[in-house]
Design brief:
The chain is mainly β. It is 3% helix and 37% strand. It has a single domain, classed as Jelly Rolls (Sandwich), CATH 2.60.120.260. Strands 1, 2, 3, 6, 9, 12 and 13 form a seven-stranded antiparallel β-sheet that branches. A four-stranded antiparallel β-sheet has the order 4-11-7-8, with no helix packed on it.
């Protein structure tokens, strides 16, 4: 289990993943305050970014009052819209932010010298852990009823469903499994973007460029209550 302050917990036994003591907890996005909260906002709102602009992400944060440990599979349930395109490629990242606003990361490799820092400066995410991430092309959003669960959405990837102009769709986006501890005062940041947020997985390969255009809109609150579902371990 990652502790991005340097105190990783190793060989923690469990009968299954996630452990039985995990509660799937929803944190609702609020576009007005850019926060994550226990209750869905009663009024609808939206957050927008322009594809290819300098500000091409939207993010939401929650500050933990007590030590909070996540073990299992995060999931993003998002109501989204694309203007200027009939499809959208979305990238999701969950980060650990310290009490002072600094993004925490870790090199899970023995060699942490200058060369490794150089290699990981613009990618090589396998060498530098920044958080749990996920990705989905909205036209491939159809869920597999035989395999999908509330914890882990499984997609069929066998049917392309392009959006019509002005159509708002909801996406279930599976994020990589997580084992991460947050201490009192630390924050979790959910980042949503139309570009890869981690760069390449391994060094020396070309970074993927998604075919996005126009603007992406994330709807929150009201009858379009987007949320991040987290596997919270009982204290």
């Amino acid at each position: 289990m990652h502790d991005l302050r340097g105190g990783d917990r190793l060989a923690v036994a469990a009968d299954e993943l996630p452990p039985k003591s995990v509660a799937l907890t929803k944190y609702y996005l609020d576009s007005r305050s850019r926060t994550l909260g226990a209750l869905a906002p009663t009024e609808g709102a939206s957050a927008v970014y322009e594809v290819g602009s300098n500000l091409d992400v939207v993010s939401f944060v929650v500050r933990f009052e007590h030590e909070t440990t996540l073990v299992g599979y995060p999931k993003a349930h998002l109501w989204v819209e694309a203007r200027g395109s009939d499809d959208m490629d979305l990238f999701i990242l969950v980060q650990n932010i310290d009490a002072y606003g600094t993004s925490l990361r870790q090199f899970p490799v023995p060699n942490q010298g200058a060369l490794v820092h150089d290699i990981a400066e613009r990618g090589a995410s396998i060498l530098r852990y920044t958080g749990s991430d996920g990705r989905l092309l909205s036209s491939l959003r159809r869920l597999d009823p035989a395999l999908a669960t509330d914890a882990v959405p499984a997609h069929t990837f066998d049917q392309i469903e392009k959006r019509s102009a002005g159509e708002v769709v909801h996406l279930e986006i599976h994020l990589l499994s997580i084992g991460l501890a947050f201490y009192p005062g630390e924050q979790l940041r959910l980042v949503i973007s139309g570009r890869s947020l981690l760069g390449t997985l391994v060094p020396g390969i070309r970074e993927y460029t998604p075919a996005n255009s126009g603007s992406h809109i994330v709807h929150t609150g009201g009858d379009r209550a987007s949320y991040l579902q987290l596997p919270v371990l009982a204290r």
